[in-house]
2-succinyl-6-hydroxy-2, 4-cyclohexadiene-1-carboxylate synthase
Amino acid sequence: MQNPVTTANVSDFAELPATASHGPLRIEYRWVNEAAGNAPVAVFLHEGLGSIAMWRDWPQALCERLGMRGLAYSRPGYGLSTPREHDVKWPVDFMTGQARDILPALLDALGIGTQERKRMWLIGHSDGGSITLLYAALYPDELAGAVAIAPHVFVEDISVDSIAQTKALYETTDLRSKLGRYHADVDSAFYGWNDIWLNPAFREWRIVDELAAIRQPLLAVQGHDDNYGTMAQIDTIAERVPHARLVKLDACGHSPHRDAPDALNEAIAAFISRPR
């Protein structure tokens, strides 16, 4: 079922041609803090049920703090981007495909070339944090650094249990109508995410070994009260990426940009501005 999406700002769209890994895609994107002119770009990668609209005003506020331009986009299946066909299931390695194929193609379509990418920061949350880590590992020379917020690098019981509970809420409460404010096809968005995370084959998914390829500065952030993952996620990142910096936030759940925005913004600003 298609649902109208209302957003405070107007999005633009990029057309990505079909490749061996995906069909033609229409990707919703939006620039924020364009007043920063030729400043470095911060690319925001949303969570598993996120979209441009669900970020609200946080990318703008953070980019103003950093003096950067921001680029937010809705991944295929989310927001106003090309929806997932309802009979299509995301593959176990879907996040690798997003990092390897979709994000580089979007950067190409928007004219963000090699030199600009060398100054680019990726800022990803949850599944978007995992995609951020994968991009940093796959393209270590095509970014200045990365911030992974509540990322997943392997599957924990707490994640699967919470996602199963979210499915029950989606099917029995008003959660579906609430999410429908942020996605043109809310069932496409929800079940694309929910089905893969609850797929028994996905229990074996892990990107731990890939992390060792990350060379650029990396900040990993986790809330102590996150019901979708434990500190083992970012502790594992630190084991594989010795130069990574960890920030563990008190009184903070799975969404630090909503639960503890001041502490998160301070941590990101301090990390990005520190001498290398």
User: Anything to note?
Assistant: The chain has one domain: 12-273. The two ends are 50 Å apart (CA to CA). The first helix runs from residue 52 to 55.
